[in-house]
Design brief:
The chain has about 325 residues and is mainly alpha-helical. The protein contains 13 helices and no strands. The longest helix is centred in the N-terminal third of the chain and has 29 residues.
Length: about 325
């Protein structure tokens, strides 16, 4: 191996080590955003795998005569902390695009390291580069899938942080087309206000009436939203009605008859999972998932719904 070749390899390995330490911290940060226990385990394992890769990279640096980097992990944690703080003010998709950019850089540098290793006859580093390529290719595909899930309306494998959720709502409000029927919306608002018992009255009594008032409030709200949807659709405000329907669907308060699976309440876990696997659109899966979480919350059914959304997202973006 030439001196120039060794120097270039060392420089690339040190850079990849720094980026890997950042990747580890990002994975650990994302654990708190996992939607399901399976995703939480996957992210935890990803962080552990990252630490193992970091150790292998450090070993390769030593074998090339380089000095171990004692501040790399500290810099990685600091970079990840800054990244996490910055992302709090970003929409969810922008934060994930930042993660994807990091993984693409790691993948491209791993490919470069492999080429350098082949040119310099370093079989051990070539094998390490192969490991890195496989790992980062898988992570690129995973993040791409999560982005596609979110673009299709979710549910994505990761939950938004509260600030990201608020930012996303603000962006949608700024960009929403102002073409809804004013008459239909006015009637919908009036329906919500006048829904018996009145929402304001229930709110004022809720502190004293306890759980009974809370349940009554929820029932009144749900009924009011259903009525508002019917009115806006009847008045020709289809876009507003669709938005109200999506709101009801996301809250899990659709009537069983409105679900995309017939006689859903009568299905056991195996039957529900089989039906979910046949659903073709994320909106249908979302409706089932929200209803399931609001009523029965069976772990196997929830996981099956998340898996189906991921499969649809992968089809859309061409991940096979």
């Amino acid at each position: 191996m030439t001196m120039n070749g060794t120097g270039t390899l060392l420089a690339q390995l040190r850079t990849v080590l720094d980026l890997t330490n950042t990747e580890i911290q990002v994975a650990e940060t994302r654990v708190a955003q996992a939607r399901t226990e399976a995703v939480r385990r996957e992210l935890t394992q990803n962080a552990a795998n990252g630490r193992a890769r970091a150790e292998s990279i450090e070993s390769a640096i030593r074998n090339l005569g380089g000095l171990p980097d004692v501040i790399g992990p500290l810099l990685g944690r600091a970079a990840a902390a800054v990244k996490a703080m910055t992302e709090q003010a970003q929409p969810f998709g922008e934060a994930l695009l930042g993660d994807l950019a990091l993984e693409h850089q790691l993948l491209d540098r791993a490919r470069y390291i492999k080429a350098l290793a082949v040119a310099n006859g370093s079989s051990d580093i070539e094998k390490l580069a192969d490991r890195l390529i496989v790992a980062h290719t898988a992570t690129v595909e995973w993040i791409t899938t999560v982005l596609a899930e979110d673009a299709l309306g979710g549910p994505a494998a990761l939950r938004r942080t509260p600030i990201q959720a608020a930012t996303g709502v603000a962006v949608k409000l700024v960009n929403v087309p102002m073409s809804w029927s004013a008459r239909g919306l006015d009637r919908a608002v009036e329906t919500v206000r006048a829904a018996p018992p009145a929402l304001g009255e229930l709110l004022s009594r809720g502190a004293h009436a306890g759980d009974v008032a809370t349940k009554a409030l929820s029932a009144s709200r749900d009924a009011a939203l259903a009525t508002a949807e019917r009115i806006t659709r009847r008045e020709g405000a289809g876009q507003a009605a669709d938005a109200l329907h999506s709101m009801r669907s996301a809250a899990g308060v659709l009537d069983a008859a409105e679900l995309p699976i017939t006689d859903y309440d009568a299905l056991n876990v195996s039957e529900a999972v089989a039906e979910i696997q046949d659903l073709a659109t994320p909106a249908d899966v979302r409706a089932i998932l929200a209803y399931e979480e609001a009523h029965k919350n069976r772990h196997g059914v929830v996981s099956a719904a998340q898996t189906r959304v991921a499969a649809i997202a992968q089809e859309v973006v061409g991940i096979g």
